[in-house]
Amino acid sequence: MSQREREYRRLLEQLECRLRAAGRALRDVLYGMTLYDWVLELQKARGEVEQAFTLLVFGDLLGIPILTPYYTLRLIPYMVPRIEAWRRSMLRERDICELFDQEIG
């Protein structure tokens, strides 16, 4: 392989890397412009549904007996990894600003 061919190959590899980086940047910008807000809202809604489900199943830990213990015992293996985080989120103090979904201004 000659010197000129190696130089062309190196330039093509550099061009390919730059085009990939530009494509990634364009993809990220378009994602941010179109879908990012939806993704955040869906994640927030999913978290709220999971918290409500966990409250329904393990409300007796907070003193709210909703479901019978039989069903609670059947769901324990699926819910154990989330119990501590759920308990902390339910018992933490909340600020009035957390109630607003939209930014002010």
Percentage of residues in DSSP E strands: under 5%
| C-alpha Rg (nearest Å) | 25 Å
Overall tally of structural domains: 2
Helix content: over 70%
Please provide the ordered H/E string of secondary-structure elements: HHH
Q: How many runs of DSSP E, i.e. beta strands? A: 0
Average of the residue pLDDT scores: 82
How many angstroms separate the termini?
A: 63 Å
**Which outline best applies?**
elongated
Quickly give the structural class.
Answer: mainly alpha
Number of helices, where a helix is a run of at least 4 consecutive DSSP H or I residues: 3
Sheet of most strands: none
**Any low-confidence stretches, pLDDT <50, length ≥5?**
none
Key terms:
2 domains, elongated, 105 residues, mainly alpha, 3 helices, single chain
